[in-house]
Amino acid sequence: MNATRQPVAVVVGATSKWQADGRNTQLAHGKVLDDSDLPVSIRWGVGGAIAQKFATEGFLVVLTTRKAANAVALEQAIKAQGGGSMIVELDLVSHTSIAEAFATIRETVGDPEVLSTRT
Questions:
Q1: Is 16 strand, coil or helix?
Q2: pLDDT, tens only, 46-89
Q3: Is-contact 108 101, C-beta < 8 A?
Q4: C-beta separation of 36 from 69 below 8 A
Q5: pLDDT of residue 77
Q6: C-alpha 36: how far from its chain's center?
Q7: What letter would DSSP give residue 5?
């Protein structure tokens, strides 16, 4: 448990599916899309919805992503909804990255009580 005494939930790949400004979106549509008309709860797909749900249930949510910039908007949404969140970079094809990510999580907020893998 961390300084705020919240249980920790790690969501692997919380932003890995669709993003309005993501590379695949730009390839498919030829431009960045405006997602402001979408409810915040669905902008990041299932992983983002899971992260938001854990946050509303009182967990400090750790968003893992290959690039921290990918999760900034989701982290801001969670915090705007009154939840706690942090971002940790994690590349699932690298054993070193996985070990470093979980070492960072444990050192910063404590051992996770939940690990959600939506990859």
A1: coil
A2: 888 899 999 999 999 999 998 898 899 899 999 999 999 999 99
A3: no
A4: no
A5: 92
A6: 19
A7: -
